[in-house]
Amino acid sequence: MTSQISNRVFALMFSALLSVQSFMAQTSSMEALVGQSLSQLQNPTAESYVNCVAQLQRVEAMYPDSVLPTYQLALQSLVFVVQYPADEQAERMLHEAEQRIARLKERQDVDPSDLHTLQGFYYTDLIVRNPALGATFYRDALEHFDKALRLNPDNLLAKQLQAQFMANMPGNN
Amino acid sequence: MKQTIVSLLLICVSTFLTAQTRVTGTVADANGPLPQANVFIDGTIDGCLTDSLGHFAFETEVRDTLVLRVSFVGYEDQRRLLVGGQHRDLHIRLRTAALPIDEVTVTASTFSFGQTSSMKQLDALDVVMTGNSCGDVVAALHDLPGTQRVGEDGKLYVRGGDQSECQTFVNGMHVLAPYTTNAENTAVRGRFSPFLFKGINFSLGGYEGEYGQALSSVLPMETTDKAESDKLGVSASLVDWNAGGTKALGTAAISFNASYTDLALYENLMPSRQDWLKPYRNLAAEAQMKKEWGEQTHWKTYMSYDRTRFRLHTEDRPLSLREGNLYVNSVLRTTVGTGCRLMTGVAYSQIDNAIDHALQLGDSYRNKREELHLKAELSRVVSERVKVNAGVEDYGRWSSKDYRMATQDSAYRLDYHLTGAHLDAQWRVWRHLFLSTSLRTEHLSTDGQWIWMPRVTLNYLPNARLRLSASWGRYSQTAEDDYLALGRGSMRQSMADHAILGITYRRGSQHFRVEPYYKRYRHLPLYSEGQWRATGKGYSRGLDLYNEGSWLGGRLVTTAAYSFCDAERSYLDYPEPSVPRYSTRHNLNLTARYYIAPWRTFLGLAESYASGRPYHNPNKPGYMNAHARAFNEVSMNLTFLVHPKVIVYTSMSNLLGRRNVFGYQYSNNGAVGTPILPSSDHFFYIGVFISIKSNKAYDIANF
Fold first, then answer.
1. Cβ-defined contact of A122 to B45 (cutoff 8 Å)
2. pLDDT in the model for residue B8
3. Fewer CB within 10 A of the end CB, N or C, for chain B?
4. What is the ipTM of this complex?
């Protein structure tokens, strides 16, 4: 009886271990692919950002249940817009980011601080694309950065984006 | 020999193993090639982007059977199974994506400022900086099609309906008195600062079942979310002074704002036609409390109280007015179960009005109105095809009026309830076809009847640019308290049927809208044969045209709105069916806002035209038998973003100084016709808004 229980426990542990290993393999593979996509940005150009975002879309399609590819896709799209606001791809990138943020909002497993950081970044992009919208969106951008930092005071990206936003605000530079 | 054979075999095997499948082709949509579409093998990162001609070419190590996937933002992903060999000259055609059901607003005739389903598009600030709003939401909305200029009171008159037919909702809760009070022939202002709100919707008709007690239009506004940091701000102008702030307390925030308005200084600088004995003064206080529990549960409470006083010499008497206006609103929004959104709210309004020498020397007028509005709403996206929304609400209303004069007194007391319930369902009938069905029922305690109001809207969205809609619905509203009292229990609810067609087209930064409509009114209050009854009727039909465009890289934004309105009613004391005295046949509003980047300044220009208002000339046969001359006004505003903490806003109405006439009022014997004129031809406003403590920029609101 005892040995039966031991066997069952062993079988359960073994199967759990296999599941964890499989999950870790999948996770590490996904992370590796995300990393591979981002590696295109070592010498960033508009084209490399576009290719990176395209590759992240493919990774996202491979791992639709993972947050990381969607998050990185939104983030890199937003980085592209802030770097190349006048590029003909900027509008599409903004749309990509908006869609991904909406998708992340519906998920339960997204860090709310990261989500507010992306939203603050999105409004920043709107202002960068069209400074005439500044008066409209300054408050929204900063409100989201504030909230991101309230939820996670150690959110480095939120801190950096907020600091850059304040530094580049008309009247402060 | 043996070694050679082995080597050859190894080479063959390695060649076979490293052989790559080449995939080439073109991606297009209905309009031609699609550049930058993402073409890849599903489950891998092998792929490429299409070039400027929509061509793609790449190699993959996946052989035999593979799934080619093509994606492009705004289009449905396309998957194609490819079996064996090379795959060259593939032609992939993408279809535009159908909108998710929760992103489709199937309400016709709505203008939205602020939050959309995903991200914010426009802000209250945009509304205010356009045209001649002087910081007033209601005045700004007059630049939209379907609204009519009634300069002597400044309220919202929509598509042939009178001002009482437009109802205001804050966070979904009704506001009984959305306007401030002012003297006769002076445009009133909306009670709420536009900076209180993150979203302003203005529906000109065809609205869903949630909104009742509005025959013509609804103005739902959503207050801003909880602030994340402390704020303190002050503002000052020639007519008003404000101070307020917000204290952020982690997941909660408390805000307070106080304002004092006094026309004395302005009247000294720019005298109006009013003969003030004590110019208009208003003291107002507002408070807000907001609390969040996680991302899904939000509680918002808003309170405001203001007191208005003035005395003016009118005809041969010193009219004196005092008014107190209280509004409290508390709303909780949360998620229950799996994806079900619940909203519960309570709102209380109280208006206490006292006028001495109101109609003749020595008379006294007292009017107190109260309303308690309770509401609960439940909404859920049931599937990709269906979204439902159901709710119940109750309006309790208490009203008393006491008018005393030397010869006779009159008074009434009213106490009634109106209970309503509705069920709305939005369906995706087909990829691009959405149907909204709604049923609303109401029970008015004074007549004991249940009325049923079906509403239906069909939207066809063939692509992201075009929307075609058709809407029909039945709407109700109780008569104003005076008529309810005069009707002595016989005054049932007024009804209106709306039929609206709509075409909306967006291309780039251009937005066009065309909306013909027809409204039929029944059971309007009518005085006939010595009695007040709900037997009045009428119609309103017309066409609204609207264009909004963005030019010069977004620095210039223009709007053009034209409305044709043909209305006729038999109601109130009209002896025969007539054009309502507020209705104008042709209405045109043009606005332009230009951002002068080096000066960080917005320049706004507005032109408003309305054909002559009808009025009754007793010296001519018939009723409403004459027309005043056309209304015309050119206005300008400048907003200087002086510093992230300082904004200067200035506005001037009627730059050309045209003397607009809203009609004529005749003496009892009909001999003398006095023009109805605005209290002043111009209004000049200059205000400075300063943030004393805030990490935000251009954050005008003290809230």
1. no
2. 46
3. N
4. 0.77
